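Exam revision sheet. Question 4 asks you to relate a sequence to its structure. Input first:
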Amino acid sequence: MNQEDLELITSPVSPFMETSIESPQPCYSLPITFAYQVAMSQPESHLFEVTLEVLGWAQPTLELRMPVWTPGSYLVREYSRHLQDFAASGDKKALPWRKVRKNYWHIDTQGQSKIVVRYRIFANELTVRTNHLDKTHGYFNGAALFLYVPGFEKQPIQIKIVPPRSDWHTLTTLPFVPGKENTFEATDFDTLVDSPFEIGHHEIYPFEAIGKPHKLAIWGRGTVDCDRLIHDTQKIIQVEADLFEGLPYDRYLFLLHLTSNGFGGLEHKDSCSLIYSRTGFRAKDKYDRFMQLVAHEFFHLWNVKRIRPKGLEVFDYEGENYTSSLWFSEGTTSFYDLILPYRAGIYDAKTYLKSLSQEITRYLMTPGRLVQPLSESSFDAWIKLYRPDANSANSQISYYLKGEMVTLLLDLGIRIKQSNQRSFDDVMRQMWKQFGKDEIGFTPEQLKATIESVAGFDLTDFFDRYIDGGTEELPFDEYLAGFGLRLQSNGENGDRPPHLGVTVKTEHGREMIKFVEVDSPAQRAGMSAGNELLAIDGLRVGADQLNDRLKDYQADDVIEAAFFDQDELQVRSVTLLEPRPSQYQVVAIENPSSIQQQNFQNWLGVPLTAV
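Answer key, structure tokens:
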């Protein structure tokens, strides 16, 4: 950082002041250009050094704002909390500025047409939706790094990257600006937000799929068989392109960060960011889970990046963008992330049904499924899903999870009604043609109408009971029966302990109650999340021993539970209830009919006897 930069950052600025926050009405005779520079001279400090140069400005005030969220992750994350050292200058002199909201800055331009803004962003959070900078690399998302000028979101933006060392390389899907070193251009602010950057030391593996260039870029050390990973990724690309009848991009980037225990992904229009455990590729089940993650984020190319709910048609970066259709955008995508790797031949039908069984188990083990309607879960994503608390499982259901379950039932229902000549695949293709290709936001009513047009029957009752307001139990067996399947619970085996209704984990040598099910024996006895479980009937009990201890009792037995509540010893009588299942499995029914066997064959392409 040179002396002029230091003076601008440390120059006196006006304190936070109350002022109007209305954007100036633009009236310009000269072209206005926006150019960013992102430097990282001391990566060990985790500080990106950002410079914005605005040329051709003709208004007395320049207003800047910072997004509070990023598309694909429905939580207000307050990215401006990481911004520091804000400064503004004109013709080699500091300009006065004031901060008028948490993420608004107003600069008094004093007649200057060239405005230079400098600030730094602290970046030490390695997720797919935030920024990370250290001695090995720099990664950032546009929403978490860049300010924008309201009213000028459609203006082209240039971005120059200044790495700290010559051996650091820049990777992004934005095109190079001819004749300018390490400089890229975004057609507008939405595109900038949608184009993450990876700068530093990373391995790049180019490959081709369906005649188009792709890259797999990996940062971090890990046990990855890249040839196998690329081969299976090509299969995923093929089956998804077949479903939608082509690819909607010219080139694509898979960006993978390997960490100790990370998991996640964020979709973009021609790339995705993935984070996964560096040792998560050895075991077959963990490798399959990663390929499901790849299938999920790649499916978002169509579903949500282009087939968008009306509430997400035009992004408002200032706050929550509400929609009741995230069950389709995310939950339907979750339905496909299980079955597409199967269609691609990455795993067999038994593995698919095992994964499906695990998802059904998660769903049926969540009491909140009977409390929160699915459309409300979508609408309340901003305040609930990403902010779990001790009561979340009792009061809410994930739109990812229930959306996946509802899509499964709709897919099976369409197949039965249409003799396997149609499926939810046809819904996706119709949504793509009607809304996705031209990026026209769909309403909940239009989504329902499209599904009905494929299904060939009225879905009002289904939507009322399972999506828009009802919280009835999903009729899995009713829909599975047509394919010769049913749900089997481990409660059928008679080896489950009586029901207490707590989840206990060992933390630092203490047996901590993490969850208490609503209306369970434990809740009735006054036990709460955060209590420390000590003993049952006078004998110490640990998290790994609890179920075995409870097997010594029967339903209606009364036990004495000892626990600490706010460091106060409590001993309460607890009346146990009938055992509850803890696991569900999709299995074949006995003596399936020829029609059921044929339906299964048409659905998964293998005989029912194969599973």
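Marking note for examiners. The chain is about 25% helix and 25% strand.
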